[in-house]
Amino acid sequence: MERRRLGRTKHDSSVAVLGAATFADCTPEQAAKTFDQAFRAGINHVDVAPTYGEAERNLGPLLPERRDALFVAGKSHRSDPDGVRAQIGESLATLQIDQFDLYQLHGVTSVDQLDERKAAVEAMFEARDAGLTRFVGITGHGLETAAAQLEAIRRWDLDTVMFPLNPRLWSEPDYRRDVNALLVECRTRNIGVQTVHVAIRGPWGAGARTERTSYRPYTDPDRLKAAVDFVLSIGGVQCLVTPGDRSLVAPVLAAATKPTFLSDRKRRAIVADFAGDTLIVPSDLSDDLGDDTA
Q1: CA 213 from centre of chain
Q2: Helix pair angle (264-274, 221-232), 10° resolution
Q3: pLDDT tens-digit readout, 204-259
């Protein structure tokens, strides 16, 4: 699988990052099978949060053996600095590792939330200074996320960002403008760029859900391939996180294993094709299974 330099971290991350929300409600045996599948496909970067159900507990026995080959990223929703400090320690113990490669302020969707969580960011920098994480980043899942992250990297010396990106979102002029501005600043500051929600198709509606994701995902290989190629063709994007359902890991890996770099004309055609899909605000459809904002 292709790897791209994740900004100033200097880590060559696989273009597909294993989203550990996929391990939220599976057995340890199922987790081990999917983890091995991803590792053999070339993934060398995993992203996990304590609110992802059983994910940390399922990953814990799997990480030590391959720790040197993996970039491990964690997250915290918490605002209270003592809560952040406690959560870092708890997550490291559960994951059976001594240090995160990246620890992220999770789920920031507005500039107002940056103000509310200032102390949490400072606690993460303290954790970096103490050797509990090598780098500090920020994630978000809403239409204001890119604008909020642009402000965040101007306030703090963050190493990475993570925001939603897919062809349907790109068709929104305001969101596209904010993402482009963020990408320019990230390039200037050598900040790593990660994306999420590549596979959002629309709401579930009244029918039975067939995947664990809170949105109806793309499952058609051609449609999924177009979305993955689109995201990985946006200049400045290093990687995308796999969706939070085990059945989607293999098709996303297949699409990302040999991504096709798209011309501007082809990207515009894909955006036009996807623009008719229902717009879902990702912040309303988080894969997090619990509220942990203490």
Answers
A1: 14
A2: 130
A3: 777 677 777 888 889 899 999 999 999 999 999 999 999 998 999 999 999 999 89
